[in-house]
Amino acid sequence: MISSRGSRRLLRCPTNNPLTVRFVPEESEDKTISDNDVLQMLLKTFKALFVNDLARQMPLLSLLPEVQSKYPEVQLVCPETSTANAEDVLLNTLGFSIARSQSSLVSAGSGVFVTRGFVPKRTIVAMYPGTVYENYEPIFFQSIGNPFIFRCIDGVLIDGNDKGISKAVYRSCSKRDQLGPLKMNDISWLAVAVRNPLAVGQYVNNCSADKAANVCYQEFDIPECFPIEFRQYLPNINYSHEVQRPLRVVVLVALRDIGPGEELFSNYYTIIS
Question: Residue 154: how many CB atoms within 10 A of its CB?
Answer without folding.
Answer: 12
